[in-house]
Amino acid sequence: MKQKKHIEEFEWPENPKESGFQGQSDSTVWDSFRSGNESAFIFIYEAYFDSLFEFGRMFCSNENLVKDAVQDLFIDLRKSRENLSTTNNIKFYLFKSLKRRVVKDQKSWYYKLLELNDDYSFSVSLSHEQFLVDRQLNEEQINNLNKAVQQLSTRKKEVIYYFYYECLSYEEIRQLMGLSNVKSVRNLLYKALDFLKSEIS
C-alpha cells in the first residue's frame, strides 16, 4: 500500500508567508483554500500546526502519534478540500476534526493504539490570569490552583481549556465535547470554577 506523503514532501509555492492572507478573515482564507489556492493551504498549516499539536498532546502523550495525526489531518483536508464545509473559525474546525480523528473515530488505528474511550485523559495546566483576573494570587495560591486543576475531572479540565485558553463559544464547546445543549456547557464550567475558587480562597 502506498504510504501518504508528509506535508513537507509536497511542492509548496515560493514565499507562502507573502501570500497576502495575513489579516484576512477566517472565512476568506478558508474559502480560498477550498477553491484550490495552495498558498492558503500553506498559510493555514503554518498558522495552526503548533496549536493543533499542543491540543492533540492533551489527549495523548505520544508526540510522534500526535504529529502524524496532525499531518494526516492536513493531507486529508487538502485532498477533499472541494467537499469541505464553510467555516468562519478555522481553529475550531481543525480542533473538531483532530479530536474526532484521535479520540472518537473507532475505525482509526489511532483509536486502536490508544484504546481511548469516553474516559480519555486530558492534561492541561492553567494559569490564574486566564480566569481569575480580578484577584491577585500569591505563590502558594497559584500552587494550590495547579493542584486543584489536577483534581478536576477530564471534562472539567477540557471545558476550562476551551473557554479560557481558546476563547471558544459555548456552542463550539458543546460541539467539541459532544454535549446535548449549551446549558450543559455552562453548568460544567461553573462547577469547575467553583471548585477552583474554593481551593484558593
Write up what this structure looks like:
The chain has two domains: 10-114, RNA polymerase sigma factor, region 2, helix turn helix motif (Rna Polymerase Sigma Factor, Chain: A), CATH 1.10.1740.10; 128-200, Orthogonal Bundle (Arc Repressor Mutant, subunit A). It is mostly helical. Helix 7 (154-165) packs across helix 9 (182-200). The radius of gyration is 19 Å and the shape is elongated. The chain is built from nine helices and no strands. It starts with 25 loop residues before the first helix and ends with a helix. The chain has helices at 26-34, 38-57, 63-79, 90-104, 109-114, 139-151, 154-165, 170-177, 182-200.
Concise account of the structure shown:
With 201 residues, the chain is mainly alpha-helical. It has nine helices and no strands. The longest helix has 20 residues, at 38-57.
Topology of this structure?
Blueprint: H1 26-34, H2 38-57, H3 63-79, H4 90-104, H5 109-114, H6 139-151, H7 154-165, H8 170-177, H9 182-200
Helix pairs in contact: 1-2, 2-3, 2-4, 3-4, 6-9, 7-9, 8-9
Reported by name, the CATH topology of the largest domain is: Rna Polymerase Sigma Factor, Chain: A
Number of strand elements:
0
Low-confidence stretches: 1-5, 109-119
What structural class do helix, strand and pairing data support? mainly alpha
Kindly report the oligomeric state of this protein: single chain
Q: Please identify which CATH superfamily of the largest domain we are dealing with.
A: RNA polymerase sigma factor, region 2, helix turn helix motif
How many discrete structural domains? 2
Instruction: Please give the alpha-carbon distance between the first and last residues.
Output: 59 Å
Helix tally? 9
**Broad shape:** elongated
Average pLDDT metric? 77
Radius of gyration: 19 Å
Strand count, sense and barrel status of the largest sheet are: none
Sequence of secondary-structure elements: HHHHHHHHH
Write down the CATH class of the largest domain. Answer: Mainly Alpha
CATH architecture of the largest domain: Orthogonal Bundle
